[in-house]
Design goal:
With about 350 residues, the chain is mostly helical. It is about 55% helix and about 0% strand.
Amino acid sequence: MGATVSCCASPGESPKPPRREVELEECPITTTEDVSEDTGTYLQHISDRELPDELAQEANPSDHPRASTLFLNKSQTDVREKRKSNYLNHMSPGLLTKKYSSCSTIFIDDSTVSQPNLKSTVKCVALAIYYHIKNRDSNRSLDIFDEKIHPLSREKVPDDYSIVDPEHKLIYRFVRTLFSSAQLTAECAIVTLVYLERLLTYAEMDICPCNWKRIVLGAILLASKVWDDQAVWNVDYCQILKDITVEDMNEMERHFLELLQFNINVPASVYAKYYFDLRSLADENDLSFPLEPLSNKRAQKLEAISRLCEDRYKELSKSAMRRSLSADNLVGVRHSQAVLS
């Protein structure tokens, strides 16, 4: 291939082309302390040079299912301080508010990874945003998300808008208003958090008091268009937020997509990881998902679903057995034909 010399030709007939002398500056050379002067220089392999990019991809939780979510890491500081304070002050957990099943009553959690509870999920997403703002590393931002430059209302923006951190209740009311007015689903809330952390990672910025509303609005806008079958138009959000214009929404959406590098894919493994990490966040902050007692009607429904799944499993097992037997018969026929021939 290429300039490779054929072995059929003699050295005299096909002289090798003169070798070009290459300066050391043209080749990437990496020296380590383990390499002695006698062994010479150490040339880094191409796979070693590509390894940092792979590690960076695995470190991004919005793309890789094995990477830990950013909001859960940021919440651990407050959780540890809370546990330490309770231990030093010898505080008891108080009355048990969590419900437990007994012989007479069985409590069922209606929230599943495929159908999460809307209110609890939105509250947990708001809490994750709260920890992002509270435990941020710096105040890196972009003008397109600055509420002073692009206000969401005609009311005067306070002078300390970029200093005072919003409370969890304020963030929850803002997110809940958008979800209830646009009739969005709980799955859309999880995808919103995925896009939010992907934006912070790709754009190398922070969510802070001056930009959290517009970043959350842009993530919700994008998630509703990608996830929901009946997408909400930008003009619909202008009816919810009366003072924002369609041109502003379009510009913010365009910048959001560009900062995401148009990567709006959310794998099922990443979605499931964010769901279960939100549940862990809820348990650590006493935001338990609602438990309802199992009624007769619900028990009959679960039993019917269980029978249906069992019947489907039996059908799949039978069909797999038929394919296996047909393959065995085919092998036996071929073996007989080989013996006869």
